[in-house]
Amino acid sequence: MANSVMQKWYEAAKTRSSVRNYTGSVDKDTFYELKGAASRLCNDDARIELRAKNGVLIKPVLSQLLGGVEGTNCFAAVIVRNGNNYMGGYVGEAFVLECASRGIGTCWLGASFKRSAVRQFIDIDENESLIAVIAFGRTNGFPKPPAKKSAEQLTGLETEVIKALPEWQQEAIRIAKLAPSARNKQPWDIEVKKDMLGIVCNSSNFGYGDVDCGIAMLHIELGAGMRNVYGDWDMKGATKYFVPYENTVAYDDKE
Known about the structure:
It is a single chain. By secondary structure, the chain is α+β, with helices and mostly antiparallel strands. The protein has two domains: 3-137, NADH Oxidase (3-Layer(aba) Sandwich), CATH 3.40.109.10; 151-248, NADH Oxidase, CATH 3.40.109.30. The chain is built from eight helices and eight strands. It has helices at residues 3-15, 28-41, 85-101, 115-121, 151-155, 159-163, 167-176, 209-225, and strands at 46-52, 74-81, 105-109, 128-137, 188-193, 196-201, 231-234, 239-244. A four-stranded antiparallel sheet has the order 1-2-4-3, with helices on both faces. The protein has a four-stranded antiparallel sheet with strand order 5-6-8-7. Helix 3 packs across helix 8 (209-225). The longest helix has 17 residues, at 85-101. It is globular.
């Protein structure tokens, strides 16, 4: 991930919030620019398909309990292979932050859209699942974000302990707590280990817990990157660990 890209996504993560009322769909040129950006985010486990079609996004008046959107017909379908919902959240959030960095509003939607209509416009294989769509469009600005859990709540650590952590871990936690999630439940715990950070899903969160954790994983990586710490995710086990490359983090106590 290029540092310039990380920088703009990091800045977007600090100000972005969900938009449900849009001033219109994006113009054709912007749509195809975003389509190209989405294609570059795809991998073997997740892909994003953009469409501008009526009849997919549900308006709030028809979806008062689920919370729909209005003012745009643009959406990005988040599709995963072999049930890799974590990667769907990770890749989908990258698209969200790319949009936000351009001043384009977005909203993750897990239920308030017509799945049958999406399948009319996008082919989905037998080993793939449509886990969410992301509405996007023009906006006059991002609304005030909802209150989030504190770093202390997410880590279970005291304030003074958090302040004593390496700067990269502090920044990763700070940005992770801004990550969006279904119903703003933030269904994850952050495990702090020496030279690592782990994230574990603590709730199914209406079936979107793994997606939410994937979103938070990207935020952790962005925060670490802003302190020049880069690494990979160890996806084995219930806890997913961000493991820095040895040449980007100091191992002061290593023998």
